[in-house]
Structures are given as structure tokens and as C-alpha cells.
Amino acid sequence: MDDGAERIFAALRDVSQSGAPLYLQLKKNIEEAVKRGLIGPGDALPSERDIAAQADISRVTVRKAVQDLVKSGVLVQRHGSGTFVAPRMERVEQSLSRLTSFTEDMARRGMAARSQWLDRGIYTASPDEMMVLGLSASELVSRLSRLRIADETPLAIERATISASVLPDPHEVTSSLYMALGKTGHRPVRAVQRISAVNLGEAEAQLLAVPIGSACLQIERISYLASGKVIEFTKSIYRGDAYDFVAELRLPGPDGQEGEAT
Questions:
Q1: pLDDT digits (tens, 9 = 90+) for 72-103
Q2: Which domains does the chain have, with CATH numbers?
Q3: Residue 8 to residues 19, 48, 69: CA-CA distances in angstroms?
Q4: Distance between CA atoms of residues 142 and 39, nearest Å
């Protein structure tokens, strides 16, 4: 048995038949082990069977405690790999004055970005999409929905819509949407964003590995070509515990032009 497993089991042996329900005792013991540094970010938990045997409790009890800790963001589960202590979240500072893709933005920070595709396909445009993109009722749109992940931490859910006449095959987008649009001369040069605070529902909280009801930032982005034509309509959800959006403000000069703030 490795040192990590020994530390975890040592933290679980206090689970007994007295006091609170067993799953709550186990949950508290794992939380305390994380807080005290006995098990750290990225450490793998032993299997449900091994934990149950060491703590002398049922696997159902272990599963309930682990699921609660996953919902609260203490643990993360990776399909086919197991359960791990969640990484410590370092906040990402995002400038509101630069129009960049998620992939480009994470690359500048030295973070490994990837996406988990939730949906890619051609659809009939919704009334909102027709209005924003300036489409007729007969025109189709490409929708791209994905979970954006940096250094294996889910940070955002992004749902982008592009006219199908511009992006006839959404599967052509493998990483950066803006890179794909740039290849056909349709990369946006400016955008207007509306940011609002909302609380996460169950499905989105599960995708972002945070508790249900967690505060997050909802961003609607309308992006434009140099000609002024709208090219992209995106609705995104960003983790409130991970992102800070920063805007630079300047004091107008006496003639109404922008000047340096002092």
C-alpha cells in the first residue's frame, strides 16, 4: 500500500457507530483530511470497496459520502480513472478589452486547455438566433456547445451559434472556434458582452464540478466582422469562484476624447 493510501485510511478509521449517520462521519473525515493536508490536490482516493473494508462500513455508505463531496467540489470523479481530491482553484483574470478565444487565452497563461464536446450540429435557428444573426426563418445555424477545461479543471460552459452559411460543418472546429473562422476570413474583430450573475442549476453544476446553486457569471457575446456584420452569438457560463473579469477605464479629456486617467 502506498503512502497516499495509508494517509487516507488513517483519516477514515475514526468512523464509528456513534453520533451522526455514518456517511456524514465519513464525509467529515475526508473533508478534514483535505483541510489538514493529509491528502492533497490530485491525490486518488482508494476504491469504494477498500474504503468500506478499512472503515468497516457498507459500500453504499461510502458512495453516498463520496457523491456529496463531489457535489460540494471537494472531490472530482474522472470516468474510468477514479475519484480524486479536487485541484485548488487559482482565479483566472480575464480582460474585457481583448477579443480572444478560450484556447488562446489559456495558452497565454501557460495552461493546458481542452474541450469536452456537449453538442455539435446543424439546427433551425431560434427566434433569438434569427434576430441577433440577422437570419431568415429558412436559414440554419451551426451550434457548438462544450465544456471548457484548463489544467483538468472545468471552467466554463460555452454555447456558440454561427450561421450555417459561414460554418456549414461544425465538426470542422476541433479546438479554437476563432481559428476555424479565421481560415475562411470570418474571424470577429470586436464584440459586445453582457455579463450577469446567476446561480447554477443541477445539470450545469455537475458539469462544472461545483455545488448546485453556486454563483456564476453568465455572459452573452455578440461578435462582429470588420464590415459590421454579426458573425457569432454565444452564451457562456463561467465559474464564479474561478474568474475575475477586468476592464480598463479611462477618463475622457476636455474635448470628449479619451485621455489618461490620473
A1: 778 878 777 788 887 665 556 566 666 666 76
A2: 3-85 (1.10.10.10), 92-246 (3.40.1410.10)
A3: 22, 12, 15
A4: 44
